[in-house]
Design the sequence.
């Protein structure tokens, strides 16, 4: 594939104009390939000109709950997220202000005390399973993407990821998938696909869909 990198001089010129960031919302089911799409965009634009915010950062605090209760919570339900903070910090970024985004502690099922400072950039990607669910959040997106991948593929990927990266057992992953992940996907995540401007069949490895997205981003920042 030909090198489609955006010239640095173009990005620097646009950045100096202090214009509103071009915001892309990337939604899709668990392990659908959202991160693959986002990483491709980072390669295109460059980390100095593109910021990524993951919706997982905005899981609500659960310090008051014992860890057993936290482990049983439904993290794929809209109620699991701090929508006020999410919308506030996105609004701050769009106004040109830097924000301190929370960091989530997956093994402990709770928000950590750490934060990551995120500054406004020419392109901002907001990625998460319910990125297209909330109307107020959607209104800030210039481009809405839904990454669509078969359920069996997503399940295998989740098993591999959660065992490798989040210290969980296959039995606990399957129990969570059947009791909360799958029902919430059907009730909340899958229906949000209707708000997408672009749907990625076959997940984040669909080169034709990626090329179309890249072309749209280049058009926006040139």
Sequence:
């Amino acid at each position: 594939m030909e090198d489609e990198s955006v010239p640095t001089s173009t990005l620097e010129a646009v950045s100096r104009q202090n214009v509103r960031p071009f915001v892309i919302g990337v939604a899709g089911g668990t392990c659908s390939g959202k991160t693959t799409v986002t990483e491709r965009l980072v390669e295109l634009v460059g980390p100095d000109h593109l910021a990524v915010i993951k919706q997982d950062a905005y899981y609500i605090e659960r310090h008051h709950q014992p860890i057993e209760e936290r482990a049983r919570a439904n993290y794929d339900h809209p109620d699991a997220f701090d929508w006020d903070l999410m919308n506030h910090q996105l609004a701050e970024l769009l106004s040109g202000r830097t924000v301190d985004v929370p960091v989530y502690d997956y093994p402990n099922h709770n928000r950590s005390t750490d934060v990551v400072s995120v500054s406004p950039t020419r392109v901002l990607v907001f990625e998460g399973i319910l990125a297209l669910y909330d109307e107020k959040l959607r209104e800030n997106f210039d481009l809405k993407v839904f990454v669509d991948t078969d359920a069996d593929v997503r399940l295998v990927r989740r098993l591999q990821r959660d065992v490798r990266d989040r210290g969980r057992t296959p039995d606990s992953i399957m129990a969570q998938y059947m009791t909360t992940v799958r029902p919430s996907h059907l009730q909340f995540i899958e229906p949000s696909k209707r708000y997408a401007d672009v749907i990625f069949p076959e997940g984040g490895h669909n080169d034709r869909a990626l090329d179309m997205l890249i072309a749209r981003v280049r058009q926006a920042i040139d």
About this structure: Strands lie at 22-28, 50-54, 99-105, 110-118, 123-127, 143-148, 198-201.
